[in-house]
Amino acid sequence: MTQIIDKPKDRRFVHSGLSWKQFKSIQSGFSGFPSIRLFYYQGTLELASTSPEREIFKSIIGYLVETFFLEQGMRIIPTGSMTQEREAVASVQADESYCFGESKPIPDLSIEIVFSSGGESKLERYQALGVPEVWFWEDGVFALYHLRESGYERITQSEFASGLDFALLTRCVVSADLTDAVREFRRGMAQD
């Protein structure tokens, strides 16, 4: 069953002219609020509250991607929305993130669900952190980027998830529920 995606808006606040020390003070004040995400890049703070719809899609994407990695026998460390930072430069919380092989302070793959802001404009933050691969899911479409010496390059196939059928993944993400999504995803992987 396919679900029509209504595009909810996450609540968002942006403020420029903050020092890293001011950002860290604000960040510590929100430490007990998991539905509030904070981003910092070059003196600009972005504070966003997540919508229930974002959490649903983030969870479905995470579960399906992890299913793929496990079926492929890949060693992954799921790091979720952990804070990724480079002091005085950038701080990001992806919706989902993964390290391959071993735990690292900066994950190898970050995934963002985009409802109201972000997408390609967030690539500068990820580049400042040195995240090798970033995926954005917006309006039912995945956009993949891999970091090269000259910056992020748009790619059609993940360099970490070689063989992942993104058409299948997309169909399953917009499925009516997680159980149906996982069943369809596993069936589709078995047919490849």
UniProtKB/TrEMBL annotation:
<keyword id="KW-0540">Nuclease</keyword>
<keyword id="KW-0378">Hydrolase</keyword>
<keyword id="KW-0255">Endonuclease</keyword>
<dbReference type="Pfam" id="PF05685">
    <property type="entry name" value="Uma2"/>
</dbReference>
<dbReference type="InterPro" id="IPR008538">
    <property type="entry name" value="Uma2"/>
</dbReference>
<protein>
    <submittedName>
        <fullName>Uma2 family endonuclease</fullName>
    </submittedName>
</protein>
<dbReference type="GO" id="GO:0004519">
    <property type="term" value="F:endonuclease activity"/>
</dbReference>
<feature type="domain" description="Putative restriction endonuclease">
    <location>
        <begin position="35"/>
        <end position="159"/>
    </location>
</feature>
